Amino acid sequence: MLPLKNDTFIRALLKQPVDRTPVWMMRQAGRYLPEYRQIREQAGSFLNLCTNPELACEVTLQPLRRFNFDAAILFSDILTIPDAMGLGLYFTEGEGPKFKKPVCNAADVEQLPIPDPCVALRYVVDAVSLIRKNLQGSVPLIGFSGSPWTLATYMVEGGSSKSFQKVKGLMYEQPAVMHLMLDKLAQAVAAYLNAQIEAGAQAVMLFDTWGGMLSSEDYVEFSLYYAKQVRALLKTEVDGQRIPTILFTKGGGLWLETMADAGYDALGLDWQTDIHHARARVGHKVALQGNMDPVSLYARPEIIIEKVKTVLDKYGSGSGHVFNLGHGILPDINPDHVKAMVDAVHQYSPTYHHD
Amino acid sequence: MLPLKNDTFIRALLKQPVDRTPVWMMRQAGRYLPEYRQIREQAGSFLNLCTNPELACEVTLQPLRRFNFDAAILFSDILTIPDAMGLGLYFTEGEGPKFKKPVCNAADVEQLPIPDPCVALRYVVDAVSLIRKNLQGSVPLIGFSGSPWTLATYMVEGGSSKSFQKVKGLMYEQPAVMHLMLDKLAQAVAAYLNAQIEAGAQAVMLFDTWGGMLSSEDYVEFSLYYAKQVRALLKTEVDGQRIPTILFTKGGGLWLETMADAGYDALGLDWQTDIHHARARVGHKVALQGNMDPVSLYARPEIIIEKVKTVLDKYGSGSGHVFNLGHGILPDINPDHVKAMVDAVHQYSPTYHHD
Questions:
Q1: What is the dihedral of CA B105, B111, B115, B116, to 10 degrees?
Q2: How many CB atoms lie within 10 A of CB A221?
Q3: Most B CBs within 10 Å, among A170, A215, A341, to test the B interface
């Protein structure tokens, strides 16, 4: 493998000195790009796009041809693991992901297999290898997975949810069954991320999209506990290179102190969390990634530049910051606005990295 | 007016000693009650129900006949003010509230009137008088309004929203226009709440349902600033009786310290916020209201009772706690489960109020 030409992202996650703040964007490979929509149409369906390593590689690389991002992120779906467990993932127009066989009871949980990622998720592992090869060491590649709790919400609800009635019902009524399910998911997620690391992922991120729907005590017991378990099972080094890890709980701003003790190198921040306060609370333990409001990308470029400056200024001087949005980019953002954001990070951040 | 037979709710908001923790429930008059659904059907539409003082009074009183709630809350809609401003509120099945004439630009904002509540919102004022009379001093009556920011989101979006693209667009692109709109709304909200107080409301609550969608700095500038302005304009006493005020920002757990300085007597907490930590952070300044996860009411009564005990125990000893859910009750909850919650608060809370 070629050495990294741009390792700013990795260095920032490890809080090593950098010349400028690295930047990438959640969902940077996606619908806001016309070239993505073209490949998506060619693939016929979203799932075809995810399961075809060549197409997944192509859409992963697309945003890097337009913007000076400091990292690539594997293009894939968050629900590949439950699909590999046999739940039958499918997509309906306008309603998001669904499962043909949701998890309904203790028997369903007991029967859940822990999939071998090199078999059932071969298409993801192959995509990672192909992307890593095609990146030619330009920037690092991020692997990712949904968190055990977030995967469990979709598996029990049978798809997206507003109130999380079914999964919380299982959690309240049969906590032991819920714990068994989360334990299996933690093992599956760790194996999946390790397979991505072995195939070439140079950092990994755990997306806990729905951890923020829990009460504080339920978050610790049912989400964070299993994020820790995943972390404990991860490979930490490949060929002498440390593989940094990022934990992102949307709506988790209240719990940063406990999250910072979960063993991850960095925490992702949503846009509601003040990054200045977050750094004061946990910045001695972890790097921080985020956190511009994704909706601000609708505004004029001059305003976007001001918002970038605000986030940089709030984090302040020194390493340990990866610039990102506070959640994924929205599908109808003008790509020129993304360029304004990325260029502004590169233009205005060096001043925060002088001695 | 008759003196209050049960003033526990008022006393707890003012942090005066009480024998037990008072309890009420957001959306306690609502669809989970079969007797509500019957009146709702009789009214023909949700708006007919809101605009008819006799029917609004009847549904306000319904939950008090079933459960030992320590307060009644006016039955009304959150969007009565924008409707009175001429935006034309209507409801579509399954899509929630909509406006015929949403606010699109600076000219629309300039033309917005500040409605006289005793004219344009007479039906609400009349409902308050009627409910207060019918309560016969049994428990206090809570008046309420949406916060200026929350009302503005619906007015600019034209209804509910997921990303708040239009209202945040206006906020980012034309902050002065947004401030003019919020200033008008603050005056309208204060006049509306004062009219409710004059008609008999014994406490008032400001619902900032969508403040939590803002970044920390935008929350302070565009939501909290106007909540403070409302508070400064409110009547604080009627006939020597103090009228306590409650501020509830859903998703505002990160900002409790600044919220506690806004002049309100109490803060509402959503279920994600740990009430023990919240008390340690702000409990010397304000009372706290909340915060059981509304979804836990789906669980068996034995589990509900455990959840009640947890919330009571987390708040701990002494006055300053009003038990509530962390958000409104969901429409398909079994009323027997509500009874289990209310009775458990009354049964288990006295131990926290001994000297």
A1: 160
A2: 18
A3: A215
pLDDT of residue B299: 96
List the single residue in A with minimal CA-CA distance to B167. Answer: A295
**Which of helix, strand or coil describes residue A104?**
coil
State pLDDT tens for residues B328-338: 999 999 999 99
Residues on chain A touching B253 (C-beta within 8 angstroms): 253-254
Q: Which of B168, B277, B294 sits opposite A295 (nearest CB)?
A: B168
Token pair for A239: 């060929």
Nearest CA in chain B to A271: B215
In this prediction, the residues of chain B whose per-residue pLDDT falls under 50 are none
Rounded-to-integer distance, Cα B27 and Cα A171, Å: 25
Of the partner residues A212, A251, A330, the one whose CB lies closest to the CB of residue B163: A330
Q: How confident is the model at residue A92 (pLDDT cuts 50, 70, 90)?
A: confident
Q: Smallest Cα–Cα separation from B295: which of B323, B270, B269?
A: B270
β-strand pairing of B241-242 with B237-238: antiparallel
Residue B269, Ramachandran bin (φ over 0: left; ψ between -120 and 50: alpha; else beta):
beta
Supply the pLDDT for residue A280.
98
User: Which tokens hold the place of A108?
Assistant: 């369903």
For residue A118, pLDDT over 70 is answered with yes
Query: What is the distance between the alpha carbons of residues B337 and B343, in angstroms, rounded to a whole number?
Result: 10
Strand partners, B205: B144, B246
Half-sphere exposure of A99 (CA within 13 A, CB side): 24
DSSP B23-55: B--TT-SSTTSHHHHHHHHHHSSHHHHHH-HHH
CB B1 within 8 A of CB B200: yes
Give the closest-approach CA distance of B212 to chain A in angstroms.
7
C-beta separation of B7 from B140 below 8 A: yes
The nearest CA of chain B is from the CA of A72 a distance in Å of 25
What ipTM was estimated for this complex?
A: 0.95
Tell me what pLDDT residue A93 has.
79
Kindly state the average pLDDT of the residues A19-29: 98
Q: What is the pLDDT of residues A147-178, one digit of tens each?
A: 999 999 999 999 999 999 999 999 999 999 99
For residue B246 the two structure tokens come to 């409650």
Instruction: Say how far apart CA B110 and CA A104 lie, in whole Å.
Output: 54
Inter-chain CB proximity A213 and B169 less than 8 Å:
no
Give the integer Cα–Cα distance in Å for A296 and B167: 11
Contact B13, B267 (CB under 8 A): no
So what's the pLDDT on residue A315?
Answer: 98
Contact B225, B231 (CB under 8 A): no
- Beta strand segments in chain B, E: 72-73, 89-92, 96-99, 141-146, 203-208, 237-238, 241-242, 245-249, 266-268, 287-292, 321-325
Rounded Cα distance, B338 and A231, in Å:
40
Which pLDDT value is given to residue A194?
A: 98
Q: What are phi and psi of B146, to 5 degrees?
A: -70, 155
Task: Indicate yes or no: CB of B165 within 8 angstroms of CB of A272.
Answer: no
* Amino acid in the structure at residue A37: R
B295 vs A172, A213, A248, B271, B328, CA distance in Å? 10, 10, 24, 10, 10
- When scoring A95, A271, A272, A332 by the number of chain B Cβ atoms within 10 A, the one with the most, hence best to mutate, is A272
